[in-house]
Write a structure and sequence with these properties.
heterodimer, A: alpha+beta, Serine Threonine Protein Phosphatase 5, Tetratricopeptide repeat, Neuraminidase, Immunoglobulin-like, 5-stranded antiparallel beta sheet, 13 helices, 33 strands, B: mainly alpha, 22 helices
């Protein structure tokens, strides 16, 4: 019986029991059941009791222990458990030879205690040149079983290099296969298929070993093999382990497996009985018994009772080893495995068809698409009649027996496909049955080297799926910045509004009281009145905003006051806003009052009135017309540039020009006097340009009213 | 006081208060009846509003800019610059249709290359590709310089979007012929080569773009992604790292680098980078889905599911997140939930999901 392994990726370690291949049924007990206690030899007991044993005695004892171990280790009927105990005792006392460590490692290996085995083989390294070269072979096997596939490949290659040509010709093929398995395993482990593995509940699994689970197609009946104490008390074999019996459990209405029962007589005998296969409807049971090197038996459920198992006919059972059996869905074909002569080598799958009389006909080898020189077992049909599963350590195995899927179409078998990891592992993997929908299978497995097998359910999660990682980024650069529009159109040039505010207060010259006056603004360039407005009656204040860059004439008139005029040049303001304060004091019309006519202009050096003077002249005219009794003197004044005489003449002429204008506009001659004062009455210093300009002026003075 | 006066003057300038009215007004308001406004009503009112619009635009106040341009256009209808700028403001706000209409007016008044280029870009954004191409052709007819280079570039982008990669290559190349330092054109041509699976040429163009503009993080990122495709994982990490060095908040580069670390089985670094991407951009659905995949791979199904849920919460149309969550749910034994997610992924165009649906969700 073969049993299996671990899967270091999964939380549980799957070990699948495959119970029919090995010739000796008792081998199972030796390999798996570590509950079987071996009695230490008396010599060891004695040795342990005497603590102060001389060195000589211990050497002697070691030799004795090792020899005893070797006798079992190298015997035809090997018992690695016993040999290992002896070797370990020897080691405890002090033995440490490479040969002993090698045999301990190898014993563990055969007992499938792979962790311990690897530890011991690793102790043999770094190997000196005398290291048993087979060490590398086992290291290869063990590293593969521990999923260290690269190390394993390296070990196998080392081993291969150490082989002589003759050895290589014999073992080369196997080594090549082992290396290939590692390569396949690497690929499969890197791409696990999604499965769920659930341990069946305590109605099935107990403290004892359970394995070889077979399930009806509708997943309602579970038959398995277990080694449990029996009521008679005589149920252990030569090795002191319980005999195998077949157990059955049914699913209850809630979908849970019910308490498993020993199938009892006639299925179970006082010896080893193991389930080997079940028909789809769970009414036909195949049983494996170890007689005749392993033969298949058949029992049927009739009227609620299992018939006494009958050995299958000679078409099925041969002198060789027959093991697993299964029926096609229609019960017309029997598939079984046998290592009989004439096959491809190892266990092969055979098919037998039922004949007219209801007997199983001659066995036919399923041939080369299925069978290989290695082992093929556990051929399982599915309800579709096309898809089959089987286990093989040929084909593309990742190590040991792997489960493969194959389909039969147009009389041809497809190439078997490895079901992949973690259903398959580097050790043996076998399934006995699948649920009809192919989504569930049952296996036996142990969590570690040192625990017993239990029954687990595998649920296939469908095909391999890979979550997709998404890398990110935008293919077009423009998306990162956003589309780059051409620049917007720029600011437009706005001509600056050069605003000047002219403001001030109009008051009486003597009383300083506010005067309500009319203010008239003239654009001196165009000689047009641009605004006429009044000062505030109560405060005498006024304010006007003016476009700058021009010369303005301002004339202020108020009743009983002499009009006031001035000339204001509003320069183009560099800033947007400029303020000019012009406070004006008006003089009451009284004899002797004098006003400078600031907006009377003459051509340079001449006495010709310019057009700009028109508004001012009109104001003067109006004053004279308003007050018909008014008599005035118009006087001309100059600066001190030039001779006094010349200036006197010019000033006189200019005063006369004003008088002439007034006469021309209807003012009586006798109300007007013109005088030329030259530069004799300056009102400002002649030393400055501004002063000189002030002195160049026309005045009028009230002579009578 | 001065301020008040100035304010009033300003009011009057803009208002309709006439000098004459004021003259006759002798009421008690001191200010009103003494203020005389001689400045004439300004003839550049439209330009002024326009200028205010430009200033608002320049300070990214597009709504305000649009208002100002509206006012300018109310005063002066034949004002192409105002239409053009208003269009650009609408574009900035994502109102491409509004932008296109305004560009139409601008072009009617002033059919210049610049305006055609802008309208072409707006049409490109509006996915009105035929119109965009015709505008770009107008640009190329009217201009031989930079506007033409840009027009070729955008033609390349249009063809790229239309998945007409061969044509896109030609346009990008023409843009490069005019402007040999056109980093974007090199970059996008690289991406076009990538779509055509000409990876070496793609890398060469990305490199050229970087040579012209060594701060072009996107080019590093895309170069990294091509190297990842070529399984040059170390190279990819170097490029993504360069993108991160240029911009320490480059969530995309962190996300991508993490996927490479994952390929290299450097899961700690992958986890760090995914988480970093998420911390930079908490709305980063892709990084959530990817981190979930890593957690899923580590069999940390509960936390993986949380990340998938977050990715989907952030982007309800993220097909791969549904696909991946379905796979996670399957492994959490929730086959109904898995099928539901795959159905959604399938509806969102993730092809492989159909396969899962057909084989497992009957």
């Amino acid at each position: 019986m073969k049993n299996i392994i671990k899967n270091n990726e999964l939380s549980i370690i799957i070990t699948i029991l495959f119970f029919i291949l090995v010739n000796n049924m008792n081998a199972y007990a030796q390999h798996i059941d570590n509950t079987a206690q071996q009695t230490p030899t008396d010599s060891i007991k004695t040795y342990k009791k005497s603590k102060k044993t001389p060195q000589k005695d211990s050497t002697k004892l070691i030799k004795k222990l090792i020899k005893a171990g070797d006798n079992i280790f190298y015997a035809q009927q090997k018992n690695y458990t016993k040999a290992l105990e002896l070797y370990l005792e020897a080691k405890e006392i002090g033995a440490h030879s490479q040969a002993l460590l090698y045999k301990i490692g190898l014993s563990y290996f055969h007992l499938k205690k792979y962790n311990n085995s690897l530890t011991y083989f690793n102790k043999l390294l770094p190997a000196d040149s005398n290291t048993n070269k087979k060490t590398f072979y086992y290291l290869g096997r063990l590293n593969a079983l521990h999923y260290h596939f690269d190390k394993a490949i390296s070990d196998f290659n080392t081993y291969k290099r150490k082989l002589s040509p003759d050895e290589l010709s014999i073992q080369g093929k196997e080594i090549k296969k082992r290396i290939r398995e590692c390569t396949i395993a690497k690929e499969l482990v890197a791409n696990p298929i999604p499965v769920f593995i659930d341990r069946l509940n305590s109605n099935i699994n107990t403290q004892y070993v359970e394995y070889a689970p077979i399930v009806s197609f509708n997943d309602s009946i579970l038959i398995f093999t277990s080694r449990r104490p029996c009521s008679s008390g005589h149920c252990t074999d030569n090795n002191g382990v319980y005999y195998e019996d077949v157990y059955i459990s049914k699913k209850d209405s809630t979908g849970h497996w019910g308490k498993a029962k020993n199938m009892g007589k006639p299925i179970n005998t006082p010896y080893h009985d193991a389930g080997a296969g079940l028909s789809a409807d769970a009414s036909k049971l195949f049983i494996y018994r170890s007689d005749n090197d392993g033969d298949l038996y058949y029992s049927e459920l009739k009227e609620g009772q299992w018939t006494k198992p009958k050995k299958l006919n000679a078409n099925i059972n041969s002198k060789a080893h027959e093991s697993t059996a299964s029926l096609s869905y229609d019960n017309m074909k029997l598939y079984f495995s046998s290592n009989r002569e004439g096959g491809y080598g190892g266990q092969d799958i055979y098919q037998s068809d039922i004949d007219e009389k209801g007997n199983w006909g001659p066995a036919k080898n399923l041939m080369g698409k299925i069978n290989t020189p290695y082992d093929e077992v556990n051929f399982i049909p599915t309800p579709d009649g096309k898809t089959y599963y089987f286990s093989s350590n040929g084909h593309n195995s990742m190590g040991g027996l792997d489960i493969f899927k194959v389909s039969y179409k147009d009389s041809t078998w497809s190439t078997p496909v490895n079901l992949g990891y973690p259903i398959n592992t580097p050790d043996d993997n076998v399934i006995y049955s699948l649920s009809a929908d192919g989504t569930r299978a049952y296996i036996a497995s142990s969590k570690s080297d040192s625990t017993l097998h239990d029954i687990y359910m595998i649920t296939f999660a469908g095909k391999v799926k890979k979550a997709v990682d998404n890398i990110d980024g935008t293919p077009l650069a423009i998306i990162t910045t956003g589309p780059l529009l051409p620049a917007i159109e720029p600011l437009r040039n706005i001509k600056k509004l050069n605003l000047t505010v002219l403001k001030g207060k109009i008051t009486d010259q003597y009383t300083h009281k506010p005067v309500y006056a009319q203010i008239e603004l003239t654009d001196n360039t165009s000689n047009t009145i641009v605004a006429t407005f009044n000062s505030n009656e109560k405060t005498g204040e006024y304010l006007v905003s003016l476009p700058s860059g021009k010369d303005y004439g301002i004339a202020v008139k108020a009743e009983d006051y002499l009009f006031y005029s001035d000339n204001i040049a509003v320069k183009k303001a560099s800033k947007g806003y400029k303020e000019i304060i012009k406070n004006i004091a008006l003089m009451k019309i009284a004899v002797g009052s004098k006003v400078v006519l600031k907006n009377i202009f003459f051509a340079t050096g001449k006495s010709t009135l310019t057009k700009s003077s028109e508004t001012e002249l009109q104001n003067l005219l109006k004053l004279l017309n308003d007050i018909p009794t008014l008599k005035i003197e118009v006087s001309g004044h100059t600066d001190n540039v030039g001779s006094a005489k010349k200036n006197q003449i010019l000033s006189k002429k200019r005063a006369q020009a004003v008088v002439n204008y007034l006469i021309k506009h209807g003012i009586a001659k006798n109300r007007l006097i013109s005088k030329g004062y030259g530069f004799t009455q300056p009102i400002a210093s002649n030393k400055t340009k501004a002063g000189r300009q002030q002195n160049r002026r026309t005045e009028f003075k009230v002579l009578a009213r | 006081m001065n301020k008040i006066l100035l304010f009033l003057i300003t009011l009057f300038i803009g208002g309709s208060l006439s000098a004459q009215n004021n003259d006759n007004n002798t009421n008690n308001n001191i200010l009103q009846d003494t203020v005389k406004v001689l400045t004439k009503k300004d003839k550049q009112e439209a330009e002024k509003k326009y200028n205010e619009g430009v200033i608002s635009f320049q300070s990214n106040q597009y709504d305000e800019a649009i208002r100002k341009f509206n006012e300018a256009l109310k005063i002066k209808a034949k004002f192409p610059e105002a239409f053009y700028n208003r269009a650009s403001a609408k574009f900035k706000k994502g109102d491409f249709l509004g932008a296109i209409q305004d560009y139409n007016y601008a072009i009617t008044l002033k059919p210049i290359a610049k305006y055609y280029l802008a309208r072409g870009i707006a049409r490109y954004q509006y996915k009105e590709y035929a119109g965009a191409l015709s505008d770009f052709d107008q640009v190329i007819k009217k201009d031989k310089g930079n506007y033409a280079a840009e027009a070729y570039y955008y033609k390349g982008c249009v063809y790229f979007e239309k998945k007409e990669y061969e044509q896109a290559l030609q346009e990008y190349s023409k843009a490069i012929t005019i402007d040999k330092q056109y980093a974007f054109a090199y970059h996008d041509r690289g991406s076009t080569y990538r779509m055509l699976k000409e990876y070496q040429k793609a890398l060469a163009d990305y490199r050229k773009a970087i040579q012209i503009n060594p701060k072009m993080a996107i080019a590093f990122n895309n170069m990294g992604s091509v190297k990842k495709l070529l399984k040059d994982y170390q190279g990819a990490i170097i490029d993504y790292s360069s993108a991160i060095n240029l911009d320490s908040n480059n969530a995309i580069a962190y996300n991508n680098r993490a996927t490479v670390y994952k390929e290299l089985k450097d899961y700690d670094k992958a986890m760090y980078d995914f988480s970093k991407a998420i911390s930079i951009k908490p709305s980063y659905a892709i990084a959530y889905s990817n981190r979930a995949n890593l957690r899923f791979q580590n069999k940390d199904y509960n936390n993986a599911l949380k990340d998938y849920n977050k990715a989907i919460e952030l982007d309800n149309n993220y097909g791969f997140a549904f696909l991946n969550r379905g796979i996670c749910k399957e492994m959490m034994r929730d086959s109904k939930g898995a099928c539901k997610d795959w159905a959604k992924a399938n509806a969102l165009g993730v092809k492989i999901a159909a396969d899962y649906l057909n084989t497992q969700c009957k």
